[in-house]
Amino acid sequence: xxxxxxxxxxxPKTPTPRTLIKNTGLELLQKVRSRVASSSVSSRSRYKSAAxxxxxAADYLRDLIEIFEEYGWDWSYHAFRESPVWDVExxxxxxxxxxxxxxxxxxxxxxxxxxxxHRPAAE
Length: 123
What we know:
- This protein is an alpha+beta fold.
- Helix 2 packs parallel to helix 3.
- The protein has three helices and four strands, in the order H-E-H-E-E-E-H.
- The protein has helices at residues 17-37, 57-71, 105-116; strands at 44-47, 74-77, 90-92, 98-100.
């Protein structure tokens, strides 16, 4: 399964970010988390999202957001309306078959996550 638009980035069948982290980057992620926790710096996670056609894309996004929120990290969604490949307002089965969609499961994941975060009151 390819969660990115790059064909060379093929993942095992239906992995979750937690599975990928456990299998490929847990040690690195823990080092980053430890460094952030032991200093006065914050962490901002930017990630490339998932291709419109990737199976389980909404679950992938939800898992990543949950990890970032659990760690207390700021996060942003890459390529909102920047590229149709990652646009949560597009649907399709591949790069050549994309069309606008008013609602997608990926868009609902983002909107649900945004609702949980509130802008601080102005001083």
